[in-house]
Structures are given as structure tokens and as C-alpha cells.
Specification:
The protein has 391 residues and is of the alpha/beta class. It folds into two domains: 271 residues, Aminopeptidase, CATH 3.40.630; 111 residues, Alpha-Beta Plaits. Helix content is 32%, strand content 25%. It is built from eleven helices and 16 strands. Strand 1 and strand 2 form a beta hairpin. Helix 4 packs across helix 11.
């Protein structure tokens, strides 16, 4: 049996190595499903530490710790970065123009490697298999987790439970956040093309204005979800882009393009809403004589944390840190492709505090100035290792 004191006494030995790994990964980010050098780098580290692994999903990896047979707990981190130009003067600033680890996946990978080093050190005492998953493409639909499932990785490796952590720039460094049950929303992308008839703005009878049709469509969709007070589940339907194929003060364009997102926590309601959007569009086409084309790119499902697994993880996190360091999280309308796994096996997806206002580290994820207080590594990988052996 591996004790709390075993983990806490050994973890500091790997701290500087984990920080060095994180800084290397941050300097060399790669976009979703193109994480070839990132994967090679992790493979080299695993080989150096005599940790067996298999390649999956092109750039992904599954490493193995502990007994070869039995039901396995899987720990997961993501490989990919975002198409964002970093604004930073840190020594580890991205060397790849326009690409940045702005969501903390470099932190997740480095921390998981630290966890792997610890588990490898105590491997002779580990009673059940532990799988280490480095997953590609979390940031891009349909998501690398979906590809992992399609390749049968859970069945092949007898994975019956999963766990992952994610940076939380709203939580102070030294804190950990948990939420049982529903936690993160599903995510669909909506692409709508509204085709009317262009013409001279002064000649009203000669054109069919797609801007007016688009405006009515947006209002009806707003009423469908965001202004609907009778919805049984939290939901969001928002559009962040509207663009025409031309137009001017006196020129009506032919076409308008809309791009938006739909998020909710109920699969039945999700499918029902897709149909209702189609009906609204059909009715508008009949009313205006327009041609509105809808493309719904179905993305991640909602994330549901297993109540028992979270309860146990929370209990052990209190043992590793203390009660004051544990934060109860709220429901989030953001999404995460780890959600796919939550519909297959019990999961625990928790948050790692990385904020430090005194140091000016307050930027949110997906921004050019995002960074973390690396003091978070003082407990991040040790805690995950302790949770893994305790669970």
C-alpha cells in the first residue's frame, strides 16, 4: 500500500523536471490533431523512464503502470494548443507564431508526466492497472476523445474509470475544485447561410434582403432558448458572427452567413432543439421565399461527473491538502471533450487552481496573456498520484 507520506515525500524530487517539461511544451505548441512533435517528446520521456506505451489516434499515447491485468483507472491529459498569438515576455513564450497553449494543456501534460514518474517509482506497490492517456485534439470538433473511443481504447485496456484535471484561472493557486453530477454543457456549432436577392437599396421591389431575414431568424432563435423562461435545463444559443457576401449603404447583398453555438445538459432536449431550429427556418423560407441552409456540427456531449467517484476523490484531496483548499464548483456552460468518456465509464474531472493576483497571474484561458503560477505544480501531480492509488 502506498501511503500519503510516501507520495508527499517523493513528489518534490520530480518538481523541477515537471516545470522544465511544462516550459518546453509551452514553447513548442501544436494545433489539434497535428501534435506530432509533442507526441515524440512525450514518447522520449516515457522511454527514458522505462514506461511502456502504445500509440493511438495518430498522435495519442496510452502508457501503462502497475499490474498487466485487471480493471484499470485511466488518467488523461490533452496534447493540443490553440490558434492564438501569445503576448508574453516569459522565457518559455511560444516559439510558434500564432499558436499558444492558452488552455493549459501544457500544464496538464507536464503534471500527468509528474504523476507517471511517481507511480512508476512506487509501481511494485500498485495493486491495480493505471493507464496514462495523452489525448490529441481536445480543442477541435468532433474531439480527440471521440476518436479514442472509436478505436476501442477503453475496451482494449479494460478501462473502467477515468480522471482528469484542468487549470482553473479563477481559483487561487493551492486550491482544487470539484463538482459531482452535471458539470459542463454539450456543445454544437451552427452554420447558417441565408440566401436572398441582392439589388439597389432604393429599389425595394427588386431585392429580397437577407439581412432582414437573418435579423428575424436571430430574434426567433433568441426567443426559442435565451428568452424562454420555461426551459427545464440550463441552455445557451448564441451567435458570434454575422457576415454578408458584400453590400454597402445602398447595396443589398445576396447572402448572409451566421455562426453560433448551442449548449445544454440534456441529450433529448438537444435533439429536440435541433428539430425546432429546422422548423423555424422552414417557416421563414415559406414566409420570405428565401433559401436558408442550416448546418449543425454536433460536438461534445455534456459532462457528468460520477457522484461516488467525486466524493471519494474529494475526501482524499482533503487528506492530501486540507479542507480549506477544496472548492465546490458551479455548473459551467463551457464544454470539454472529456465528456465523451463520462457517458461510457464513471469519471472525475476536477479543477486545479493556477491564479495568483499578487503576481498578476489573472488572465483567463483562451486569451493571449494566459499563464499560470507554477507553484501549482507543488501539489498538482502529487495529488493526482495519491488520488490514483487511493481510488
Amino acid at each position: 500500500m502506498i501511503s500519503l507520506s510516501d507520495i508527499k515525500s517523493k513528489a518534490p524530487d520530480f518538481l523541477q523536471q515537471v516545470i522544465s517539461i511544462r516550459e518546453h511544451l509551452h514553447k513548442h505548441p501544436e494545433l489539434s490533431f497535428k501534435e506530432f512533435n509533442t507526441s515524440k517528446y512525450i514518447q522520449e520521456i516515457l522511454r527514458e523512464n522505462n514506461i511502456p506505451f502504445q500509440s493511438i489516434a495518430n498522435t495519442g499515447l496510452v502508457a501503462h503502470i502497475g499490474p498487466k491485468t485487471g480493471e484499470a483507472l485511466c488518467l488523461r491529459a490533452e496534447l493540443d494548443a490553440l490558434p492564438i498569438k501569445e503576448e508574453s515576455s516569459q522565457k518559455y513564450t511560444s516559439l510558434h507564431q500564432g499558436i499558444m497553449h492558452a488552455c493549459g494543456h501544457d500544464v496538464h501534460m507536464a503534471s500527468l508526466l509528474g504523476t507517471t514518474f511517481l507511480l512508476k517509482y512506487f509501481e511494485d506497490k500498485i495493486e491495480r492497472p493505471i493507464k496514462i492517456l495523452f489525448q490529441p485534439g481536445e480543442e477541435k470538433l468532433p474531439g480527440g476523445a471521440k476518436k479514442v473511443l472509436e478505436e476501442g481504447v477503453l475496451k482494449t485496456h479494460n478501462i473502467t474509470r477515468m480522471m482528469a484535471q484542468h487549470v482553473a484561472p479563477k481559483l487561487e493557486v493551492g486550491t482544487i475544485g470539484f463538482k459531482a453530477g452535471l458539470y459542463m454543457a454539450s456543445c454544437d456549432e451552427l452554420y447558417i447561410k441565408v440566401v436572398g436577392k441582392g439589388g439597389h437599396a432604393a429599389l425595394k421591389d427588386s431585392y429580397l434582403n437577407p439581412l432582414i431575414i437573418s435579423s428575424e431568424l436571430l430574434l426567433k432563435l433568441e426567443e426559442l432558448i435565451n428568452n424562454n423562461k420555461t426551459l427545464s435545463t440550463p441552455s445557451v444559443l448564441s451567435f458570434g458572427k454575422i457576415q454578408s457576401d458584400g453590400g454597402a449603404t445602398n447595396v443589398i447583398p445576396n447572402t448572409v452567413f451566421l455562426e453560433g453555438t448551442f449548449r445544454t445538459f440534456d441529450e433529448k432536449f438537444r435533439a429536440q432543439t435541433h428539430q425546432e431550429i429546422k422548423i423555424i427556418i422552414e417557416d421563414l423560407n415559406k414566409k420570405w421565399g428565401s433559401n436558408i441552409d442550416l448546418n449543425i456540427k454536433k460536438g461534445y456531449p455534456f459532462l457528468n461527473n460520477d457522484a461516488h467517484l467525486v466524493s471519494e476523490a474529494k475526501k482524499h484531496a482533503i487528506e492530501y491538502l486540507d479542507k480549506e483548499a477544496i472548492v465546490d464548483l458551479d455548473l459551467r456552460m463551457t464544454s470539454e471533450d472529456f465528456a465523451y468518456f463520462s457517458h461510457k465509464v464513471p469519471v472525475c474531472f476536477y479543477r486545479l487552481g493556477v491564479r495568483n493576483e499578487k503576481k498578476g497571474i489573472t488572465s483567463m484561458v483562451h486569451t493571449p496573456t494566459f499563464d499560470i503560477d507554477q507553484e501549482a505544480f507543488n501539489h498538482s501531480f502529487g495529488l493526482m498520484a495519491y488520488l490514483a492509488v487511493s481510488l
